[in-house]
Specification:
The structure holds 2 protein chains of 2 kinds. By secondary structure, chain A is of the alpha+beta class. Chain A contains 7 helices and 19 strands. The longest helix of chain A has 11 residues. The chains are: A alpha+beta, B alpha+beta.
Chain lengths: 348, 128
């Protein structure tokens, strides 16, 4: 067990590779109760969330979820997050990173002061489980009264799982189909046990933080603190798709618009190792002998069976196929920019 | 669990004496700590090593760890099978998962190493 943002969490149960492959080919169950849940409620909740984020929250109707960010006035990240539309225009749920929950809560509360809203941090009250993998629906359906076949990706519904009241969304952090299950119930372990019992004969494994990281990286899902920070803008992180300039004003808009017009100086790209070696966070990165940055995320990808990672490179070196060097224990080893996501599931 | 006739270090290497030579690997405890091993960096044959010098690095999905030579000597063989099957260290850490074979320079250095019983006691201490 390791400590993560104040939570005792297992890095692995059976082994990172087995757990990773279970999620890619069958299913995995994660306890992600460390995630933060912040509610923005009141007559101006929509306007408030619109102001805090670059994506267009007005496109959501109740039951829909959106990936977006909390941006600084500089267009960088306070955090990345999911917004759940509970009721238009007055109730939204922000699901944020564990390590950032307190910071985000203070940020949102402060910025929300000029809107008629109430901001509440209910992170300590919520349990969150994630059931991910191609068999997720088959495993969960007999345990819930929600018709999962009618639930589209990035949608949610209220119902019971194993007899416990929950909010279930078709979302995740693995690149697979799957569900995230939120409950306020005092006995969430009933859900965990029911899913394990039903899923184990189908090859489901419990999954720890280790495989959570390798799964999200194969799918090129961002990790705050590594890939995106308050020093990297949304455009530099190659997340232009979450910016909707036409929606109106939001924090960081002016900077992002200017950056878009002037062009980026650097951008986050995916790479694979050409030489044998595994790049890890903070390893120095060189182009033509000159140090240009450090690895953001890097690991061995268990499904792709190669060493991959993410790094910010000067814009003239971001083209697919560009080779550069990463210093791995005193040796400069060759790496190459490749298309992302590294892994994309086949949609049915 | 830990072979009686092996020597052990606080860094969780094991050493087995075979005449003037020593076979070196990492212990079962070490492989469990590392988890799934995916890459082993092997030294060139002929390399001279001082005791406590890094002889190899063993990389798992979650981390990388140096392997230190328990004694001084010269590398006479490396386990090339680890290039294709690094998980031999997970499957059989004290046998097929050996890493290097050294020609020892000074056998008296073995006196600085732990015997199996001492190593097991050392591990118990780590768990508390």
């Amino acid at each position: 067990m390791i400590e993560f943002a104040g939570w005792e969490m297992p890095v692995e149960y059976k082994g990172i590779i087995d757990e990773h492959l279970a999620v890619r080919t069958r299913a995995g169950l994660f306890d992600v109760s460390h995630m933060g849940e912040i509610f923005v409620e009141g007559p101006e909740a929509l306007a408030c969330v619109q102001y805090l984020t670059p994506n267009d929250v007005s496109r959501l109707s109740p039951g829909m979820v959106q990936y977006t960010a909390l941006t600084t006035p500089e267009g960088t990240f306070v955090d990345d997050m999911l917004v759940y539309c509970l009721s238009v225009p007055d109730r939204y749920l922000l699901v944020v990173n564990a390590a950032n929950t307190d910071k985000d809560y203070i940020w949102v509360k402060e910025k929300a002061a000029k809107f008629k809203v109430q901001v509440t941090n209910k992170s300590d009250d919520y349990t969150q489980l994630a059931l991910q993998g191609p068999l997720a629906q088959e495993i969960l359906q007999p345990l819930t009264d929600i018709d999962l076949s009618q639930m589209k990706s990035f949608n949610f519904a209220y119902g019971q799982v194993a007899g416990v009241d929950c909010l279930v969304s078709r979302t995740g952090y693995t690149g697979e189909d799957g569900f995230e299950i939120y409950t306020l119930a005092p006995n969430p372990e009933i859900i965990w046990k029911a899913i394990i019992e039903r899923g184990t004969p189908l090859g489901l494994l419990p999954v720890g933080l280790g495989a959570r990281d390798t799964l999200r990286l194969e799918a090129k899902l961002m990790l705050y603190g590594n890939d995106i920070t308050d020093k990297t803008t949304v455009l530099e992180a190659d997340l232009k798709w979450i910016i909707k300039f036409q929606k109106g004003d939001f924090l960081g808009r002016a900077v992002l618009e200017k950056q878009l017009q002037e062009g980026l100086k650097r951008k986050l790209v995916g790479f694979e190792m050409v030489d044998k070696g595994i790049a890890r966070p903070h390893y120095p990165v060189f182009i033509r002998g000159e140090k240009v940055s450090e690895v953001c995320s890097g690991t061995f990808a268990p499904f792709l069976k190669k060493a991959i990672g993410l790094v910010y490179l000067p814009i003239d070196s971001t083209e697919i196929g560009t080779e550069f060097e990463i210093e791995i224990r005193d040796k400069k080893l060759k790496a190459r920019v490749i298309p992302t996501p590294f892994y994309k599931r086949e949609k049915k | 669990m830990y072979p009686e006739n092996f020597y052990y270090t606080k860094d969780h290497e094991w050493l087995k004496v075979e005449g003037e030579e020593a076979v070196i690997g990492i212990t079962d405890f070490a492989q469990k700590q590392l988890g799934d091993i995916i890459y082993v960096d092997l030294p060139p044959v002929g390399k001279s090593l001082e005791a406590h010098q890094a002889v190899s690095s063993v990389e798992s999905v979650k981390s990388v760890s140096d392997v230190y030579s328990p004694v001084s000597g010269e590398v006479v063989a490396v386990n090339t099978e680890l290039s294709q099957a690094p998980d031999l260290i997970n499957k059989d850490p004290h046998g097929q998962g050996w890493i290097v074979r050294l020609k020892m320079k000074d056998k008296s250095e073995l006196n600085n190493l732990m015997k199996a019983g001492d190593y097991e006691k050392y591990l118990e201490g780590l768990e508390h």
